[in-house]
DNA sequence: CGATCAATTGAGCCGTCTCAATTTGGGTGG
DNA sequence: CCACCCAAATTGAGACGGCTCAATTGATCG
């Protein structure tokens, strides 16, 4: 089950056992602190065991762009494998725990276990797709569609973790949502108010209660056309 | 040299020789036609030998989002490795030629040549970063900054291929640039006119002549702050 | 040499941002 | 336990950037 969370490979049970070696080490990250910073040496990628993290780029002028909110079972750090140097910050939005997947160990293990590298390729490809989806959202959706799509995405991922798709707590601020979606915090706040007014959802601070999933879907544009 | 273009691994010469096997097959793609479509089975990734391609997502409602313009030496198709099904279209912007890197062959070869998978990981990580950069552009830059950054990026990549960083031909239409940057074609056109008026560059149809690289840099926001 | 598509340019509108004022909630120390 | 303080969120008014719609010019190609 640990393996399931740390490195969801979807492989045979005995193979999974061999992986336990790979992911022995764990790290606790208190809310607000960083798992890694831009410029740090990349020696591992990380699988989230519990909690929520954000990853963000920061350019020379200090401008920040959040590129992802990561939930348990998801992997982060794969953007640092170009020069084995992290190009982003990973910061915990709540007290979190990750397991460490050392690249070196993985290379060693995959010598005797080719499926491992294929699985890792799949995870990296997934990350590429995740980012492309965000590009699509930023490039061609309007603000209300972006927020709707964002909420649906969160709902879906939380649901896959066994939580309710209808009620959940946002671990990020309005400002962080806005940054991620290319909007201002005020716009995000206004949209929440409007969605609430229109009966799509209830929101009290960071507690979301989705009332009309289908309406959100058709609003997001994900829903055919 | 073929290898250099097709699969720029940066590895020892004798190792490179072994790779030639991997990339024997080539495909010509006439301008306007597709290397692969959304839904196609992914059996290979492709290295561009000559020409230019674009990759674009298409959602259920037919909405299109261009996620990249690819030049010689660059790899495409890595977003299709999640379920071995392509999730995007790859279309040639001019007559192009790519070499085929079969995943199966690569797995086989990397059994005896571990550096190969590490290199491939590096290429996938690069693609993740490319996409994150685009997210940053879409999420936090204004139209003029996006276009400036786009031109600088193109200039830089063409320069690395041995072409002039100052004069080049855009292989894509205003509409395609606009789609990529989350702008309308009119906005792109107006920006070109304005940049030209302000002496940053000359533009005649798709021929670009950059006159003031430094001004473009400071405009793009890439240039410290 | 028309026909067609790409690009330019203008006018007006709309969505989102900016700036500013309140309100709300959570945490801390008296 | 309450009062206070600070950060987060809400809401409003006005400005502005980029979009839409439309007309025109300029390439490219049978």
Helicity range of the residues of chain A?
40-55%
Instruction: Give a short account of the largest sheet of chain A.
Output: 4 strands, antiparallel
- Determine the structural class of chain A based on helices, strands and strand pairing: alpha+beta
What's the total count of β strands of chain A? 11
Radius of gyration of chain A: 18 Å
CATH fourth-tier homologous superfamily of the largest domain in chain A: Jelly Rolls
Order of helices and strands of chain A: HHEEEEEEEEHHHEHHEEH
Largest interface: A-B, 49 and 49 residues
Helices and strands, with pairings:
The structure is a homodimer of 225-residue chains.
Chain A: H1 2-6, H2 13-22, E1 26-29, E2 34-36, E3 44-50, E4 53-58, E5 64-70, E6 75-76, E7 89-92, E8 96-102, H3 103-111, H4 114-140, H5 143-160, E9 167-169, H6 174-181, H7 185-197, E10 201-204, E11 207-210, H8 213-220
Antiparallel strand pairs in A: 1-8, 2-7, 3-6, 3-8, 4-5, 4-7, 9-11, 10-11
The structure holds a DNA duplex (30 and 30 nucleotides).
Overview of this protein structure:
- The structure is a homodimer of 225-residue chains.
- The first copy, chain A, has 225 residues and is an alpha+beta fold.
- Chain A has two domains: 134 residues, Jelly Rolls, CATH 2.60.120.10; 80 residues, Arc Repressor Mutant, subunit A (Orthogonal Bundle).
- The first copy, chain A, is built from eight helices and eleven strands.
- Chain A has a four-stranded antiparallel sheet with strand order 1-8-3-6. A four-stranded antiparallel sheet of chain A has the order 2-7-4-5.
- In chain A, a hairpin with a 5-residue loop joins strand 4 and strand 5.
- In chain A, helix 3 crosses helix 4, helix 5 packs across helix 8 and helix 6 crosses helix 7.
- Chain A binds a DNA duplex (30 and 30 nucleotides) through helix 7.
